[in-house]
Design goal:
The longest helix is centred in the middle third of the chain and has 31 residues, at about 70-100. α2 (about 70-100) packs antiparallel against α3 (about 100-125) and α2 (about 70-100) runs parallel beside α4. The protein folds into two domains: about 5-50; about 70-145, no CATH class. It is α+β, with helices and mostly antiparallel strands and about 150 residues long. About 0% of the residues are buried. The two termini are about 40 Å apart. The chain is built from four helices and four strands, in the order ββαββααα.
Amino acid sequence: MGASVKDGKIILRGEVIETRQDGDTAALIDAFIREIGRLKTIHPEAEAVGFGVPGIINPVEGVVVNLTNVKGWLASVIAGTCASAHGTAATWAVNELSHSTLLLSMMSTFSTLPFFLFTLPAGARADMVDRAKLVRLMHVLLAASSN
C-alpha cells in the first residue's frame, strides 16, 4: 500500500497542460499545501482546486477501503480474456476445417467490423445513460455471445 500526489493543470477548455507526480508518502499533506501555493503563484486566475481518490477512504486509518473501479476492471479483464479465447478457438477451427485464407480473412474482418461501425454511436449513447449499468450489461452480453 502506498500514496502519491499526482497533479495537473487543466485550462477552461479541459486541456491538460502539465502533470507531475510525487511519491513521497510521508510528505503527502505538505505536498498538497506546497502545490496549492505554487499554483496560486503561477496561476492567480485559477478559481478552484480539486482532489480525487480511487474509492472510499477510511478516515481513521487513512486508507482506501472500497476501490470502486477494481471490480469493473476485473470483470473487463475476464470478459476480454473469454472473448479472445473464443476468437482464437473459432479462427483455429476455421483453419483446421477449411484451410481457406479467404474464410480466415473474412472471419477477422467481420469480427472487427462492428467495433468500427458502432464505436462512435456507442460512445455517444454511453454519455447519456448510467455507465455502471451499461458496463454490467455489456459484460453480460459479451459473455453470452462467447458461447
